[in-house]
Each structure stands twice: as C-alpha cells, then as structure tokens.
User: Fold this.
Amino acid sequence: MFLRISAVAVAALAFTAAAHAAAPTVSARAFIVENPATGEILAQHGAWSRVPIASITKLMTVLVTLEHAKWNDVVLVRSDAAAVGESTVHLREGERITVGDLVRAALIQSANDAAVALADHVGRGNRAAFVAMMNAKAQELGLERTHFVRPDGLDVRGHYSTAWDVTKLAEAAMRVRAIRSVVRLRTDTIAGRRRLHTWNDLLGVFKGLYGVKTGHTGAAGWCEVAAVRRNGVTLYATVLGSPTRSQRNADLASLLRWGISRYRPVWVVPRGRVYLQAGVGYGKDAVPIVAARQVARTVRIDKPLVERVIAPNALALPVARGQRVGELRIYSGRRLVARQPLVAQRAAAKPSFGGRLGFYAGRTFSHLGDWFS
Assistant:
C-alpha cells in the first residue's frame, strides 16, 4: 500500500501578501469573527469578556418564546409591557396581538414592549419565570458566560454576555426558520398598521448579509451580531461596545470584508491530475491513477492544504478503466476538506498464457546474459 502526503498546489495561495493581511483595527470593546461550519475563529479581541449586550438579548427572548408558543397564538398585552419605554411599537394595555407580530416587532424594530409582552405571555405573567427559562436555554446552548435579568436587554446589573456567547446564540437562533425569515427584513407591517424599520443599517447594503440583530444602550454601547454568506462561505461577526452607530457599522463591515477575503473557491481535486503511476508487471506500462471526479471547495488562503494519497504501488491484472483502487483525502489542518475515490485512468489487460510465457522467457535470457557479461 502506498501513502503519500504532500502540499496541494493551491496551497501556494497561502504565500500571497493578501494571505498575511492582519485583521482590521476596530474600536469595539469586544469582537469576534467565526466560521460556524468549521468552528474556526479568524479574529477576536476580548471575545470572552462579560459585557452588556443590549437588545441582542431579544434573540434569546424570541428563541425561548418560539419553543413554548405558536406563531398565531394571541397575546393579551399587560400594563407592564405597555409601560416599557425607549424603542417600542406603542403597545396598549389590553390589546390583543399575535406572537408572530410581536416577534417581528422585537427582531426588526427591537421593540422593548414587544419583548416584555412575549415574556409575559410565555411566563404566564411571571417575568422572573421567563427569565429563568432564558438562562436555562443559555446553559443548554453552552453559553457559560451569559446571564439574563430582563427579556428586553435594557441596562440592569447582572445582565451580560460575551462576543463568543452572542455569536453562538445567533447561530442557534438562525437555525429556526421563522427567525431567519424575519431578521433579513428591513421593514414590515404588523397589527395596528404599525410600520417596522430595522436598526440593522448593513441589511441590503453589505452584499451577502442576511441578519441578525443589533443592540444599543448607554452601558452596552452600539452592538451587533451579523451573518454573511458570500463566495461559498458563511461567517458570523460580532461587535460589542462600539462608541457610535456609524462606527459600529464601519467596524462590522471591515471585519466581514476581511473575513471573506480569507477564503477562495478552488479546485482542491483538479480534473485529470495523476496522483500515482501503479505498476502492473509483465513489462506493461504503469497505469495512471486519478481522482474519480474533480472537487471544488472554498478554503482559507492562509492555511496550507495537505493531500493524502492512499493506494497500492502495484495492481493485479486485469485492471478496468475507472476501477477504484484507493482514496484521496484533502486536509486543512486536521479538518477533512474533501475525499474522492482514486481510479485507474485506463484499462490494462491480463496477458495470455503465451504472453506470460514469453515475458518470463525474456527475463530468463536477460538474467543469463547478465551472468555471462
């Protein structure tokens, strides 16, 4: 059995100047850029520091709500929800409105009254019980440095998370179809002819961005967790504690652009490449061994790729064209990027009895000649 480990040709990308470009400098208190498919952290600063997260909290509020209530359930607005200030949709005490409308208000316009109304509904009037459900869900998701006190994210002692935990929360929320469909909207209309407008300034502006949630309070500063899909890769970036709204937007856009620039779509298994020349004996030409199919992947340009060729040095005749004889594996670090069967590029027939006899006779005469030479 033959095993070869070598650098893939596309790994040359890793030596370009662009591959060594450092992450941009941003003014946020904490940030992180992560590839959720691989778990790779491309860049971070203070990503495990506990800080306020403002209305990003509402991702958890909605996530818990949709686990315990239906989209078309009707909510009776209580006085405490109607009295919540700052960003609201002006809910009225005694008003009846659906869970779906409140979810849209909480996620698009970041309405505090909508978040509290959802908590009242699911907690059956006991907001502390709902917050306990939020914290239980945080533990379930492995958000070990997160603690909630309010469902709306307004400033209060003991309410905090981290850039890492916020990113994982956003990823969990985006696995819910209803949440994915809402957070990509810039505007919407709900009951009472209320027109919603997003605080996410990059939606529809930054190519490939499709969510997820912004936040702002005096203690938290300007915050956002964003998801972008471009050039075959999905990335999440979180910035917490930017000094201004415009700086938050600039910080996030620069991190996302830089993160996307770390990746390129390449043919990690090109068409027609010969990975091995396998001997077949009887004086016949070796059989070229190739991959069954070409494979393209989006890979990091700052990480070399390594190929493993697992195949025999010699094949028993006959060999059919396309016969599987081994396997090719492509790795980025320890992560398997692609695998393909290795096959014979051409056929090789088994010689006839006469042909074998002639081959061995020829070898015998050749050896005799060597002895007497």
Observations:
- Residues 324 and 343 are 4 Å apart (CA to CA).
- The mean pLDDT is 90.
